[in-house]
What we know:
This protein is of the alpha/beta class. It has helices at about 35-40, 50-65, 70-85, 95-110, 115-145, 165, 175-180, 200-210, 225-230, 255-265, 295-300, 340-345, and strands spanning about 5-10, 15, 30, 155, 185-190, 215-220, 230-235, 240-245, 250, 270, 275-280, 300, 305, 315-320, 325-330, 330-335. Strands 6-5-4-7-10-15-16 form a 7-stranded mixed sheet. A 4-stranded mixed sheet has the order 11-8-9-14, covered by helices on one side. Strands 1-2-3 form a 3-stranded antiparallel sheet. 5-S-methyl-1-O-phosphono-5-thio-D-ribulose (MRU) binds near residues 47, 160, 166 and 250.
Amino acid sequence: MYVAQPIEWTDKGVVMLDQRRLPGEEVSYTYTDYREVAKAIREMVIRGAPAIGVAAAMGAALGVQHSSASSIEALRTEFTQICDTLAKTRPTAVDLFWALERMKRRFEELAQSGADLASIRKAMIAEAKTVHAEKVATDEAIGRFGAQFMPKEGQVMTQCNAGALATAGIGTALGVIRVAFEQGHKLHVLVPETRPYLQGARLTAWELYRGGIPLTLITDNMVGHFLKSGKVGAIVTGADRIAANGDTANKIGTYQIAVLAKENSVPFYIAAPISTFDLSIPDGEHIPIEERPAEEVTHIQGIRIAPDVPAAHPAFDVTPNRYIRAIFAERGVATAPYIDSLRKLAAAPAVSAAR
Ligand code: MRU
């Protein structure tokens, strides 16, 4: 089945598919400067929490690879600057900070082991590639855990794009749907378009169509209508950050879907890797919500659709844990009380990357 490849490390640099131009055009760019990678994350060439993490790891490796530092000390100073630049791109997806922390840890391990500059450069590239390989493995594990909760047949709903484009693996929420579909579940996916950035209409619809999974695209304001019909068996979405109590930030609009799901007795699930857990914050009140430009609301792909008035664009909302039936991760399935189950999953043995 077709799996999109949003990012790849190559000998020429980091190659990214420009998601802003999908589905109309499939255009890729090759980046050799970490500052360009930071810009690509900020401007949504690449998006989706785990894919942002992979991009940050590769950006950090790129920075080290192209640094002209001639001592470990100079490289360390430059590396701090590289990580700071990559960190200041998108604030909500914790995978970004997770990936940078991991690259920093690896750098210090190497620096303290007495490795020379050439070996550090090589090993940092290897670490970024491992982060990518792990995303592939974790998505597959999440998919297997989550597929059991999908109906044997009928409609399921998602939100935004939590597919291959968003993770650099097979996807989290779409990974669950994909694995269930491959196991023989006869699923039909309802895809809300996900205004204002249209990740549902542009990206999820494209991925499902390319993968041969039946879908119906709906506008966001049709969600309640379809959930009330009694013909939706489950909802599964991704996450950008999951607090210790299970409160979950995901694409704007997810909260209202979860509330409507509860009202209509439709199970609402989250699928996300453990790198998306932020157990350092007690609840969703502590999750920083990215504010994006108002033009993304007043315009669609450069075309003005509203008068020149103020517009708001919080890019994410927080779904309180009470609306979430279960969270699928690569080490198992968490259910309420999340304060215990998420900690247990985070402490369980890691899924290693298939190399
Ligand atoms: O603004 P985006 O497109 O980066 O937002 C993406 C989402 O909200 C996804 O649902 C989330 O990152 C999970 S991706 C597996």
